[in-house]
Amino acid sequence: MNIDSSTYMDNALSGSLASKANALANVNPKDEKAAMATAKDFEAVFISQMLSPIFESLPTDGPMGGGQGERMFRSLMVQEYGKQLSESGGIGISNAVYREIIKLQEV
Questions:
Q1: How many CA atoms lie within 13 A of 21 on its CB side?
Q2: 2: left (phi > 0), else alpha (psi -120 to 50), else beta?
Q3: Model confidence pLDDT, tens digit, residues 91-104
């Protein structure tokens, strides 16, 4: 059985996005730090998903370029870019998700 590593990483990221969405309903509103951390994690995964197609289309040339390893580590790099972008202000999703977490828990 031959599994493409990029397909595996895409499935893992999609699964982690779904698990972050499911975790939204389990956050205690009294623990605002946990709610904000969950919102930032969600935003990081979302940003990674949006950046993924951009990096997949880049050529892998050069003396050390290409191969199975680069495909695997590229997705990890994109995941870290998503985390860093989210931590440095993100694109505004974490604040909206945070408000929704609190609103859902109050009902």
A1: 7
A2: beta
A3: 888 889 988 888 88
Number of domains in the chain: 1
Torsion of Cα atoms, 39 then 100 then 27 then 88, to 10°: 20
Residue 80's pLDDT is 92
Tell me the whole-structure pTM to 2 decimals. 0.64
Residue 65: give the domain boundaries.
Answer: 5-106
Q: Report the distance separating Cα 43 and Cα 80, nearest Å.
A: 12
Integer Cα distance of 35 and 24 in angstroms: 8
| Angle (CA) 47 12 29, round 5° | 60
Q: Helix, strand, or coil here: 2?
A: coil
